[in-house]
Amino acid sequence: MLIDRIRFGPAGYPIDAPKERAFSYLREIGLDAMEYQAVRAIPKNEDVLSWVRKEASENDIMLSLHAPYAINLCSEEKGEASIKRLIDSGIAASKMGAGHITFHPGYYGKMSGEDALRAAIEALKRVRDGLNSLGINLELGPETTGKPSQLGSLDEVLRMSEEVDGVRPTIDFAHIHAREGGSIRGRGDYERILRTIEGRLGDLNGLIIHFTEVELAKSGIGERMHHDLGSGYGPPFEPLAEIIAEYGLRWIVISESPLLERDSVKMRALYMSALSKVKDL
């Protein structure tokens, strides 16, 4: 997906405005992106889809869509239904003007990691073929996942991107942090991750980024729950803001904190502060 500049926005409609004013409100508070949450139901009402497209376009809000949680591309039992849900998500995304579908790839279950990954890759090829047959061209974004039982390590989503046309991962730093037992503590940890992504994809621009602070599970591995920015949990956003500013990255940064657009505004402010320092150098 072509992203023209760094953009910030919430995962879902804003909490401080009625839905009918959602997009104009995001613009008013300085935000310019939103991830439409289709996590429990895919929108099919043509009037709603047209309204979202019109409002987002008129207010310069770039959209992505989060597909249903009920997707498991690793499962023989649920695989066919999961493929259909992703294709239906693509139809909805195309009609509302979203260029990227974020989704959780699935669970290992009793499969080995490699077998689960191969099953997901083959399923994604079928999704791609299904969307192509409908004339729909958008990105499929397997998300880095936060629990060790889930398919979706950084390596795995990069493998999906390397092996299936039109797949570009959604990078959730909180999930990477939690999955790796609290691994992101500072700038060097972000740079390690970004070097890996750039080395595998060839470019850091054009990524959909999810961000929140996250509480680890009692075991110390995996996520328990999301927290507000500045809550004291990791990962810290400030070092990432510095990297975005210094590298001039063109990303969509989606706030998944409980405070949604309020924390998007905070993230943007931290980025602007970092950018002003870069310009002073």
TrEMBL record:
GO terms for molecular function: DNA binding; DNA-(apurinic or apyrimidinic site) endonuclease activity; phosphoric diester hydrolase activity; zinc ion binding. InterPro entries: AP_endonuc_2, Xyl_isomerase-like_sf, Xyl_isomerase-like_TIM-brl. One of its GO terms (biological process) is base-excision repair. The keyword Nuclease applies. The keyword Protease does not apply. Keywords: Endonuclease, Hydrolase, Nuclease. Pfam families: AP_endonuc_2. Residues 24-258 form the Xylose isomerase-like TIM barrel domain. This is Endonuclease IV. It comes from Korarchaeum cryptofilum (strain OPF8).
